[in-house]
Design brief:
The protein is 25% helix and 27% strand. It is an alpha+beta fold and 455 residues long. Among the domains are: 15-123, 3-Layer(aba) Sandwich (Rossmann fold), CATH 3.40.50; 152-219, ATP-grasp fold, A domain (Dna Ligase, domain 1). The strands form eight sheets. Strands 1, 2, 3, 4, 5 and 6 form a six-stranded parallel β-sheet that branches. A five-stranded antiparallel β-sheet has the order 13-16-21-26-23. A four-stranded antiparallel β-sheet has the order 7-10-8-9, sandwiched between helices. The protein starts with 14 loop residues before the first strand and ends in an 18-residue tail after the last strand.
């Protein structure tokens, strides 16, 4: 993207698409961006993108919160033809794919292979690259091939079930079973009892998670503290975005069922420069080298789910998009024009863009519906605010017929606060959480507490 010079004081202030204004004296220009998705991650992305110079943001399908920073478009993410139609109709310049399913389904390939969409840039890997998240077996084979530190594993299907049992017997508890394919975040089981693990392995292969568990990856359990590290790459260059730690369990003290995420903290105290250097040398660089060796053109985010084992990073999983709720913390710490960064990524010149991050600490607390992550009710009217000193990112919200904001999902809204310390950010976040009300509201009270004494 060529730099466009702004000429203040010109008459007839005109807004144009940056692609069409080379050499013209104008006072404003537009960069039209489409974010695909409807959760808190997509609200955070849209919120940050809307701050970019000349950015007009569309979100498909979006939620009640994204409507405050852009224009919602009611399109199903599986409907690639309708996504194409809105891109052409609204002269979209750049598409950011929020969730993993469209990437695994090949939306980037769809864009690249459609002549009418050649001018539309898209952030995300193609279908082959998306297999890093779409197939646990593919990811493990990739890590083994390129010597990327990860847990010892064994891949099981119905054809080698007995060998799977023997592998379970060879490792210590707890036993980790992962469905090979996407299972809406529910395809991982961690079990303490060997016989239970064998029984669940059989159930998974019999279709407990549908086609996703036709193959199961058994992993050796890794001990340590988890952290999420986010990479943005254009295939040649990369930047490390702010890292975060999320909280998966529904209850305080990491008790209860796993969820999509109950909160996040960024930065993470134990992610020292020494640790992050190890992440880059042992994981990021070999990953990018491996992708290139495999002929995979990867332009987008790589989410590294890592285990910190006494200062040594191991990959638990790859994701091919930003995390949720980590994005709701991470985006608030990125400084500068994020639109510029993503255009540079799409153009293969990420090394030319200045990138900085805030030294402040971000704490995100997720408010969820009563009963979540199991059965919960939707359509509960929400009373929000007035809120102060925080950003509220909507996750599962919508408008009713009268224009009221109502709940429409399990994870409803994420409150993110900044501070000079975790303690300060926590204090602000939890003060403002009390101003958001809906029937059955639930949240964890201990986000960040475990990190406050780590140096």
């Amino acid at each position: 993207m060529e730099k466009i010079i702004m000429y203040p004081g010109e008459s007839g202030k005109e807004t144009m698409n940056w692609k069409d204004v080379q050499g013209q004296h104008i006072t404003a220009y537009e960069r039209r961006v489409l974010v695909l998705g409807s959760g808190g991650r997509e609200h955070a992305l849209a919120w940050k993108l809307a701050q970019g110079e000349g950015a007009l943001v569309y979100i498909a399908p979006g939620n009640a919160g994204t409507a405050q920073v852009g224009t919602n478009v009611n399109i199903k993410l599986s409907d690639f033809e309708s996504i194409k139609e809105i891109c052409l109709k609204q002269n979209i310049d750049l598409v950011i794919v929020g969730p993993e399913q469209p990437l695994v389904d090949g939306i980037v390939d769809f864009f690249k292979n459609d002549e009418a969409l050649k001018a539309v840039k898209i952030i995300g890997p193609d279908k082959r690259g998306a297999q890093l998240e779409g197939s646990k077996a593919f990811a493990k084979d990739f890590m083994e091939k390129y010597d990327i530190p990860t847990a010892k594993c064994f891949k099981v299907s119905k054809d080698n079930l007995e060998e799977g049992y023997k592998f379970l017997e060879s490792v210590s508890s707890p036993y980790v079973l992962k469905a090979d394919g996407l299972a809406a975040g529910k395809g991982v089981l961690i079990l303490d009892d060997l016989q239970e693990a064998k029984g669940e392995l059989g159930k998974m292969l019999d279709g407990k998670f549908g086609a996703a568990s036709a193959t199961v990856v058994i992993e050796e359990f890794l001990k340590g503290i988890e952290v999420s590290v986010f990479v943005l790459t254009d295939g040649e260059h990369y930047v490390l975005l702010p890292e975060a730690k999320d909280y998966k369990r529904i209850g305080d003290g990491d008790q209860g069922l796993n969820t999509g995420g109950m909160g996040a903290v960024s930065p993470v105290p134990f992610c020292t420069s020494e640790f992050l250097n190890r992440v880059e040398d042992r994981i990021v660089k070999p990953t990018l080298k491996g992708l290139k060796a495999e002929g995979i053109d990867y332009k987008g985010f790589i989410f590294l789910g890592l285990m910190n084992d006494d200062g040594n990073p191991y990959v638990i999983e790859y994701n091919v998009r930003m995390g949720d709720p980590e994005t709701e913390a991470v985006m608030t710490r990125i400084e500068g024009d994020f639109v510029d960064m993503l255009f540079a990524c799409a153009d293969g010149r990420l090394n030319e863009v200045h990138y900085a991050k805030s030294e402040k600490t971000a704490v995100t607390v997720m408010l969820v519906s009563g009963g979540y992550p199991e059965a919960y009710q939707k359509g509960k009217k929400m009373d929000i605010g007035p809120l102060k000193d925080i950003v509220a990112f909507h996750a599962g919200t919508a408008f009713d017929a009268d224009g009221n904001i109502i709940t429409s999902g399990g994870r409803v809204i994420a409150v993110t606060a900044h501070g000079d310390s975790i303690e300060e950010a926590r204090k602000t976040a939890y003060r403002e959480v009390e101003k958001i009300h809906f029937e059955g509201v639930n949240f964890r009270h201990d986000i960040g507490l475990d990190l406050m004494n780590i140096r």
